[in-house]
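Suppose a colleague, Dr. K., hands you the sequence of a protein chain of 141 amino acids and asks what its three-dimensional shape might be. Before reaching for any lab equipment, you can write down a predicted structure in token form. Begin with the sequence itself:
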Amino acid sequence: MPHASRLTKSSRPSRLRISYDQTLADFRKLIACALAIFLLAGCQPPLPPSKPLSELTPQEAAGHEVYAAHCARCHYANSDRSLHGPGLQALYKQKYLPSGAPANDDRVTAVILRGRNMMPALGNTMDEQQLDDLLAYLHTL
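The predicted structure, expressed as tokens, is then:
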């Protein structure tokens, strides 16, 4: 077969053109699929903003102190990104916790008191008022 650059337009075999056209079409489909996957993977609705610290009630502010003392080393408050544990932003504004459990006070309290997976149990480190304050603060995130 002669070198492709030596072929004239009229002497090119149709098989070569079909192969090139098919390759171009396949390439375009591949790019379109990659773009669609990329867009769908990043198209999550933005998380609602947390309540500013300056607007917290006294109970929520006390809960922020409990969070700073017990939770901040493993959980981001203003992000859903993971540190050592899942981020807590919009924790109660979603239907489910990162574990898949319902996002409600009973389930969050159980995890705080008894721990889960790598999270230690904190039931012996805070009293009931501190737990209530922490839950109030978590609702502001």
